[in-house]
Protein backbone atom coordinates (compact mmCIF):
# COMPACT_ATOMS: atom_id res chain seq x y z
CA UNK A 1 0.00 0.00 0.00
CA UNK A 2 2.71 2.41 0.73
CA UNK A 3 4.22 1.49 -2.53
CA UNK A 4 1.05 2.50 -4.35
CA UNK A 5 1.01 5.96 -2.76
CA UNK A 6 4.55 6.65 -3.78
CA UNK A 7 3.83 5.68 -7.30
CA UNK A 8 0.99 8.16 -7.56
CA UNK A 9 1.92 11.58 -8.69
CA UNK A 10 1.62 14.20 -6.03
CA UNK A 11 -0.39 17.28 -7.00
CA UNK A 12 2.57 19.71 -6.76
CA UNK A 13 2.96 22.76 -8.87
CA UNK A 14 6.14 24.16 -10.36
CA UNK A 15 8.33 26.28 -8.16
CA UNK A 16 7.79 30.03 -8.75
CA UNK A 17 10.67 32.32 -7.80
CA UNK A 18 9.87 35.91 -6.81
CA UNK A 19 10.43 38.62 -9.36
CA UNK A 20 13.85 40.23 -9.25
CA UNK A 21 13.95 43.20 -6.89
CA UNK A 22 14.24 46.53 -8.68
CA UNK A 23 15.93 49.53 -7.14
CA UNK A 24 13.50 51.94 -8.62
CA UNK A 25 11.20 53.30 -7.35
CA UNK A 26 12.74 53.56 -3.91
CA UNK A 27 10.68 52.85 -0.86
CA UNK A 28 9.55 55.83 1.22
CA UNK A 29 12.05 54.96 3.95
CA UNK A 30 14.97 55.38 1.55
CA UNK A 31 13.62 58.76 0.45
CA UNK A 32 13.47 59.81 4.07
CA UNK A 33 17.10 58.71 4.64
CA UNK A 34 18.25 60.62 1.52
CA UNK A 35 16.44 63.80 2.57
CA UNK A 36 17.87 63.57 6.10
CA UNK A 37 21.42 63.08 4.80
CA UNK A 38 21.08 66.03 2.43
CA UNK A 39 19.72 68.15 5.28
CA UNK A 40 22.64 67.25 7.52
CA UNK A 41 25.19 67.98 4.78
CA UNK A 42 23.59 71.34 3.94
CA UNK A 43 23.32 72.20 7.64
CA UNK A 44 27.01 71.51 8.22
CA UNK A 45 27.89 73.55 5.13
CA UNK A 46 25.90 76.56 6.34
CA UNK A 47 27.34 76.22 9.85
CA UNK A 48 30.90 76.09 8.47
CA UNK A 49 30.30 79.11 6.19
CA UNK A 50 28.82 81.24 8.98
CA UNK A 51 31.56 80.24 11.41
CA UNK A 52 34.28 81.06 8.88
CA UNK A 53 32.67 84.39 7.99
CA UNK A 54 32.35 85.38 11.66
CA UNK A 55 35.98 84.44 12.27
CA UNK A 56 37.11 86.57 9.32
CA UNK A 57 35.04 89.52 10.53
CA UNK A 58 36.44 89.13 14.03
CA UNK A 59 39.98 89.10 12.62
CA UNK A 60 39.25 92.21 10.55
CA UNK A 61 38.03 94.13 13.58
CA UNK A 62 40.91 92.94 15.76
CA UNK A 63 43.37 94.03 13.07
CA UNK A 64 41.64 97.42 12.77
CA UNK A 65 41.82 97.96 16.53
CA UNK A 66 45.57 97.24 16.38
CA UNK A 67 46.00 99.71 13.52
CA UNK A 68 44.01 102.31 15.46
CA UNK A 69 46.26 101.80 18.47
CA UNK A 70 49.32 102.45 16.29
CA UNK A 71 47.61 105.48 14.74
CA UNK A 72 46.95 106.95 18.17
CA UNK A 73 50.69 107.68 18.39
CA UNK A 74 50.50 109.91 15.30
CA UNK A 75 50.86 113.59 16.25
CA UNK A 76 50.05 115.11 12.86
CA UNK A 77 46.27 115.59 12.87
CA UNK A 78 46.02 115.75 9.09
CA UNK A 79 47.72 112.39 8.66
CA UNK A 80 45.73 110.91 11.52
CA UNK A 81 42.34 111.89 10.11
CA UNK A 82 43.29 110.60 6.66
CA UNK A 83 44.35 107.22 8.05
CA UNK A 84 41.27 106.94 10.29
CA UNK A 85 39.01 107.69 7.35
CA UNK A 86 40.72 105.02 5.23
CA UNK A 87 40.64 102.52 8.07
CA UNK A 88 36.90 102.99 8.61
CA UNK A 89 36.23 102.66 4.90
CA UNK A 90 38.28 99.44 4.61
CA UNK A 91 36.64 97.89 7.67
CA UNK A 92 33.15 98.74 6.39
CA UNK A 93 33.88 97.29 2.96
CA UNK A 94 35.20 94.13 4.58
CA UNK A 95 32.21 93.76 6.92
CA UNK A 96 29.34 94.99 4.77
CA UNK A 97 30.55 94.58 1.20
CA UNK A 98 31.78 96.92 -1.49
CA UNK A 99 28.34 97.42 -3.04
CA UNK A 100 26.84 98.75 0.15
CA UNK A 101 29.76 100.96 1.22
CA UNK A 102 31.91 102.13 -1.69
CA UNK A 103 29.50 104.72 -3.06
CA UNK A 104 28.79 106.40 0.28
CA UNK A 105 30.09 109.95 0.71
CA UNK A 106 29.32 112.96 2.83
CA UNK A 107 26.25 112.80 5.02
CA UNK A 108 25.26 109.37 3.71
CA UNK A 109 28.63 107.99 4.84
CA UNK A 110 28.21 109.49 8.31
CA UNK A 111 24.63 108.19 8.62
CA UNK A 112 25.86 104.75 7.61
CA UNK A 113 28.54 104.82 10.33
CA UNK A 114 25.95 106.01 12.87
CA UNK A 115 23.48 103.30 11.89
CA UNK A 116 26.04 100.50 12.03
CA UNK A 117 27.59 101.82 15.23
CA UNK A 118 24.25 102.60 16.90
CA UNK A 119 25.35 106.13 17.66
CA UNK A 120 24.85 109.72 16.49
CA UNK A 121 28.43 110.83 17.12
CA UNK A 122 29.32 110.83 13.42
CA UNK A 123 26.46 113.01 12.17
CA UNK A 124 26.15 115.17 15.29
CA UNK A 125 29.52 114.92 17.01
CA UNK A 126 33.24 114.79 16.49
CA UNK A 127 32.82 112.23 13.68
CA UNK A 128 31.72 115.06 11.34
CA UNK A 129 35.42 115.84 10.87
CA UNK A 130 35.60 112.80 8.55
CA UNK A 131 33.51 114.73 6.01
CA UNK A 132 34.59 118.28 6.81
CA UNK A 133 38.36 117.67 6.73
CA UNK A 134 39.03 117.74 2.96
CA UNK A 135 37.50 121.22 2.70
CA UNK A 136 39.45 122.88 5.53
CA UNK A 137 42.84 124.48 5.25
CA UNK A 138 43.78 123.83 8.85
CA UNK A 139 42.62 120.85 10.77
CA UNK A 140 41.73 121.23 14.41
CA UNK A 141 39.58 118.70 16.20
CA UNK A 142 39.55 116.87 19.52
CA UNK A 143 41.98 114.12 18.65
CA UNK A 144 41.33 111.86 21.65
CA UNK A 145 37.55 112.10 21.23
CA UNK A 146 37.81 110.99 17.62
CA UNK A 147 40.13 108.10 18.50
CA UNK A 148 37.76 107.03 21.28
CA UNK A 149 34.75 107.27 18.96
CA UNK A 150 36.40 105.08 16.31
CA UNK A 151 37.56 102.59 18.95
CA UNK A 152 34.04 102.32 20.39
CA UNK A 153 32.59 101.97 16.89
CA UNK A 154 34.98 99.11 16.11
CA UNK A 155 34.24 97.37 19.40
CA UNK A 156 30.53 97.73 18.69
CA UNK A 157 31.09 96.02 15.34
CA UNK A 158 32.87 93.18 17.13
CA UNK A 159 29.87 92.61 19.41
CA UNK A 160 27.49 92.68 16.43
CA UNK A 161 29.52 90.20 14.36
CA UNK A 162 30.31 87.54 16.96
Question: Would you mind describing this structure in some detail?
Answer:
This protein has seven helices and no strands. The chain has helices at 2-7, 28-71, 77-96, 98-101, 106-117, 129-132, 143-160. With 162 residues, the protein is mostly helical. The radius of gyration is 35 Å and the shape is rod-shaped. The relative contact order is 0.11. The protein has a domain at 55-160. The protein is 67% helix and 0% strand.
What is the molecular shape? rod-shaped
Radius of gyration: 35 Å
Order of helices and strands: HHHHHHH
Structural class, please?
mainly alpha
Question: What is the residue-mean pLDDT, rounded to a whole number?
Answer: 86
Percent strand equals under 5%
- Give the N-to-C terminal Cα separation: 94 Å
Please describe the topology of this protein.
Blueprint: H1 2-7, H2 28-71, H3 77-96, H4 98-101, H5 106-117, H6 129-132, H7 143-160
Please describe the structure with a list of short key phrases separated by commas or semicolons.
single chain, 162 residues, mainly alpha, 67% helix, rod-shaped
Give a short overview.
With 162 residues, the protein is mostly helical. Helix content is 67%, strand content 0%. It has a domain at 55-160.
Amino acid sequence: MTHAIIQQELPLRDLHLPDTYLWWPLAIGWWFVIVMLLGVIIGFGIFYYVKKKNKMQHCTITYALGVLKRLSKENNKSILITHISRLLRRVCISLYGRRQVAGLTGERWLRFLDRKGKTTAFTEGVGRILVAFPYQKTVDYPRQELLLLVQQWLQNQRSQHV
